[in-house]
Amino acid sequence: MTKSILLVGVGGQGTILASKLLTTGLMEAGYDVKMSEIHGMSQRGGSVSSQVRYGEKVESPVIELGSADILVSFEKMEALRYLNYIKTEGKVVVNDFEINSMPILSGKADYPQNALKVLQEKANTIVIDAAAEAEKLGNQKVMNMILLGTIIKAMGLEEIDWEKILKDNLKEKLVDVNIKALKAGMNLV
Protein backbone atom coordinates (compact mmCIF):
# COMPACT_ATOMS: atom_id res chain seq x y z
CA MET A 1 0.00 0.00 0.00
CA THR A 2 1.36 3.41 -0.99
CA LYS A 3 1.67 6.09 1.69
CA SER A 4 1.61 9.80 0.88
CA ILE A 5 3.36 12.52 2.87
CA LEU A 6 2.93 16.21 2.08
CA LEU A 7 5.47 18.64 3.54
CA VAL A 8 4.67 22.33 3.19
CA GLY A 9 6.29 25.53 4.35
CA VAL A 10 7.87 28.79 3.32
CA GLY A 11 11.14 29.23 1.45
CA GLY A 12 14.13 29.11 3.80
CA GLN A 13 12.54 26.81 6.40
CA GLY A 14 14.36 23.67 5.23
CA THR A 15 11.29 21.91 3.86
CA ILE A 16 13.14 20.59 0.80
CA LEU A 17 16.10 19.31 2.85
CA ALA A 18 13.73 17.48 5.21
CA SER A 19 11.92 15.86 2.28
CA LYS A 20 15.20 14.82 0.62
CA LEU A 21 16.43 13.20 3.85
CA LEU A 22 13.06 11.48 4.24
CA THR A 23 13.26 10.18 0.67
CA THR A 24 16.84 8.95 1.17
CA GLY A 25 15.89 7.09 4.35
CA LEU A 26 12.87 5.47 2.71
CA MET A 27 14.92 4.34 -0.31
CA GLU A 28 17.65 2.90 1.94
CA ALA A 29 14.91 0.98 3.77
CA GLY A 30 13.95 -0.65 0.45
CA TYR A 31 10.79 1.28 -0.42
CA ASP A 32 9.95 2.45 -3.92
CA VAL A 33 9.85 6.23 -3.47
CA LYS A 34 8.71 9.09 -5.68
CA MET A 35 9.21 12.72 -4.70
CA SER A 36 7.96 15.91 -6.27
CA GLU A 37 8.69 19.45 -5.09
CA ILE A 38 7.36 22.88 -5.90
CA HIS A 39 9.38 25.99 -5.09
CA GLY A 40 6.97 28.87 -5.68
CA MET A 41 9.13 31.97 -5.23
CA SER A 42 10.66 30.03 -2.35
CA GLN A 43 13.78 32.17 -2.11
CA ARG A 44 11.55 35.16 -1.39
CA GLY A 45 9.50 33.58 1.36
CA GLY A 46 6.98 31.98 -0.98
CA SER A 47 5.17 28.69 -0.58
CA VAL A 48 7.15 25.44 -0.84
CA SER A 49 5.72 21.95 -0.98
CA SER A 50 7.19 18.48 -1.29
CA GLN A 51 5.21 15.37 -2.01
CA VAL A 52 6.76 12.07 -0.94
CA ARG A 53 5.03 8.81 -1.82
CA TYR A 54 6.41 5.42 -0.82
CA GLY A 55 5.44 1.78 -0.83
CA GLU A 56 6.15 -1.48 -2.65
CA LYS A 57 5.50 0.05 -6.08
CA VAL A 58 4.72 3.75 -6.54
CA GLU A 59 3.36 4.83 -9.92
CA SER A 60 3.30 8.60 -9.48
CA PRO A 61 4.88 11.24 -7.24
CA VAL A 62 1.69 13.32 -7.29
CA ILE A 63 -0.59 13.41 -4.26
CA GLU A 64 -4.18 13.97 -5.36
CA LEU A 65 -6.65 16.09 -3.39
CA GLY A 66 -7.95 14.14 -0.40
CA SER A 67 -5.27 11.44 -0.52
CA ALA A 68 -2.37 12.47 1.77
CA ASP A 69 -1.86 10.28 4.83
CA ILE A 70 -0.10 13.11 6.63
CA LEU A 71 0.36 16.83 6.06
CA VAL A 72 3.31 18.31 7.89
CA SER A 73 3.28 22.08 7.82
CA PHE A 74 6.31 24.13 8.81
CA GLU A 75 4.09 27.25 8.99
CA LYS A 76 0.42 27.68 10.04
CA MET A 77 -1.01 29.44 6.99
CA GLU A 78 0.56 26.85 4.68
CA ALA A 79 -1.34 24.12 6.55
CA LEU A 80 -4.59 25.91 5.71
CA ARG A 81 -3.54 26.28 2.08
CA TYR A 82 -2.94 22.51 1.67
CA LEU A 83 -5.60 21.13 4.04
CA ASN A 84 -7.77 19.80 1.19
CA TYR A 85 -5.00 17.29 0.30
CA ILE A 86 -5.42 15.32 3.53
CA LYS A 87 -7.47 12.09 3.69
CA THR A 88 -10.52 12.06 5.94
CA GLU A 89 -8.60 9.81 8.37
CA GLY A 90 -5.27 11.57 7.72
CA LYS A 91 -3.18 13.54 10.21
CA VAL A 92 -1.97 17.11 10.22
CA VAL A 93 1.16 18.09 12.12
CA VAL A 94 1.44 21.87 12.19
CA ASN A 95 4.24 24.03 13.51
CA ASP A 96 2.74 26.90 15.53
CA PHE A 97 4.84 29.39 13.58
CA GLU A 98 3.96 32.44 11.48
CA ILE A 99 5.80 33.91 8.52
CA ASN A 100 4.08 36.85 6.90
CA SER A 101 3.85 36.60 3.11
CA MET A 102 4.34 39.55 0.76
CA PRO A 103 0.59 40.27 0.46
CA ILE A 104 0.38 40.43 4.26
CA LEU A 105 3.53 42.55 4.61
CA SER A 106 2.25 44.96 1.95
CA GLY A 107 -1.15 45.27 3.66
CA LYS A 108 -3.10 43.59 0.82
CA ALA A 109 -4.10 40.62 2.97
CA ASP A 110 -4.44 39.68 6.64
CA TYR A 111 -2.87 36.68 8.34
CA PRO A 112 -5.63 34.20 9.33
CA GLN A 113 -5.90 34.63 13.11
CA ASN A 114 -7.79 31.39 13.73
CA ALA A 115 -5.59 29.04 11.66
CA LEU A 116 -5.01 26.46 14.41
CA LYS A 117 -8.69 26.40 15.40
CA VAL A 118 -9.78 25.84 11.79
CA LEU A 119 -7.22 23.04 11.35
CA GLN A 120 -8.32 21.33 14.57
CA GLU A 121 -11.98 21.52 13.55
CA LYS A 122 -11.37 20.05 10.08
CA ALA A 123 -8.70 17.39 10.67
CA ASN A 124 -6.90 15.24 13.23
CA THR A 125 -4.32 17.92 14.07
CA ILE A 126 -1.24 17.88 16.28
CA VAL A 127 0.14 21.35 17.02
CA ILE A 128 3.80 21.58 17.93
CA ASP A 129 6.12 24.46 18.74
CA ALA A 130 9.24 23.53 16.79
CA ALA A 131 10.73 26.99 17.43
CA ALA A 132 10.65 26.45 21.21
CA GLU A 133 12.16 22.96 20.79
CA ALA A 134 14.88 24.35 18.51
CA GLU A 135 15.57 27.11 21.05
CA LYS A 136 16.18 24.43 23.71
CA LEU A 137 18.80 22.93 21.39
CA GLY A 138 20.37 26.35 20.80
CA ASN A 139 19.81 26.44 17.03
CA GLN A 140 16.68 27.84 15.34
CA LYS A 141 17.69 26.25 12.03
CA VAL A 142 16.88 22.73 13.27
CA MET A 143 13.11 23.27 13.20
CA ASN A 144 13.02 21.26 9.97
CA MET A 145 14.65 18.24 11.65
CA ILE A 146 12.18 18.48 14.54
CA LEU A 147 9.35 18.36 11.99
CA LEU A 148 11.03 15.47 10.14
CA GLY A 149 11.11 13.64 13.49
CA THR A 150 7.34 14.06 13.78
CA ILE A 151 6.89 12.41 10.36
CA ILE A 152 9.16 9.51 11.28
CA LYS A 153 7.18 8.84 14.47
CA ALA A 154 3.71 9.45 13.01
CA MET A 155 4.38 7.16 10.02
CA GLY A 156 6.06 4.40 12.09
CA LEU A 157 9.45 4.74 10.37
CA GLU A 158 11.64 4.54 13.48
CA GLU A 159 13.37 1.32 12.32
CA ILE A 160 15.29 3.23 9.62
CA ASP A 161 18.84 4.30 10.64
CA TRP A 162 18.15 8.04 10.60
CA GLU A 163 21.43 8.85 12.38
CA LYS A 164 23.31 7.28 9.46
CA ILE A 165 21.16 9.22 6.96
CA LEU A 166 22.02 12.51 8.72
CA LYS A 167 25.72 11.63 9.03
CA ASP A 168 25.87 10.77 5.32
CA ASN A 169 24.04 13.90 4.14
CA LEU A 170 24.89 16.79 6.46
CA LYS A 171 28.09 18.66 7.27
CA GLU A 172 29.87 16.94 10.15
CA LYS A 173 29.58 19.94 12.49
CA LEU A 174 25.78 19.94 12.08
CA VAL A 175 25.12 16.22 12.62
CA ASP A 176 24.87 16.10 16.44
CA VAL A 177 22.40 18.97 16.87
CA ASN A 178 20.29 17.63 13.98
CA ILE A 179 20.16 14.14 15.53
CA LYS A 180 18.99 15.73 18.80
CA ALA A 181 16.38 17.73 16.89
CA LEU A 182 15.13 14.62 15.08
CA LYS A 183 14.73 12.79 18.39
CA ALA A 184 12.99 15.82 19.94
CA GLY A 185 10.49 15.81 17.06
CA MET A 186 9.83 12.09 17.47
CA ASN A 187 9.01 12.71 21.13
CA LEU A 188 6.42 15.38 20.28
CA VAL A 189 4.03 13.03 18.46
In short:
With 189 residues, the protein is of the alpha/beta class. The chain has helices at 15-28, 76-82, 102-105, 115-122, 130-137, 143-154, 162-169, 172-187, and strands at 3-10, 32-39, 47-55, 68-73, 86-95, 124-128. It comes from Sedimentibacter hydroxybenzoicus DSM 7310.
Give descriptors for this structure:
189 residues; alpha/beta; Pyruvate-ferredoxin Oxidoreductase, domain 3; 6-stranded mixed sheet; 8 helices; 6 strands; 41% helix; globular; oxidoreductase activity, acting on the aldehyde or oxo group of donors; Pyrv/ketoisovalerate_OxRed_cat; Pyrv_flavodox_OxRed_cen
Taken from the alpha-carbon principal axes, the silhouette is: globular
What is the ordering of alpha helices and beta strands?
EHEEEHEHHEHHHH
> In total, how many domains does the architecture comprise?
1
Which class best fits the helix and strand makeup? Answer: alpha/beta
**Biggest beta-sheet profile:** 6 strands, mixed
Tell me the radius of gyration: 16 Å
Mean pLDDT: 94
CATH topology: Pyruvate-ferredoxin Oxidoreductase, domain 3
Secondary structure: number of strands: 6
Full CATH superfamily name: Pyruvate-ferredoxin oxidoreductase, PFOR, domain III
Percent in strands: 15-25%
Summed up, the helix count is: 8
Using the coordinates above, name the CATH class.
Answer: Alpha Beta
User: Which residues sit in consecutive blocks of at least 5 with pLDDT less than 50?
Assistant: none
CATH architecture: 3-Layer(aba) Sandwich
Helix content: 40-55%
Our measurement of the CA-to-CA distance between the termini, rounded to an integer number of angstroms, reads: 23 Å
| Sheet with most strands: strand arrangement | 2-3-1-4-5-6
Protein name: Indolepyruvate oxidoreductase subunit beta
Pfam family, one: POR
Keywords: Oxidoreductase
Domain Pyruvate/ketoisovalerate oxidoreductase catalytic: 11-186
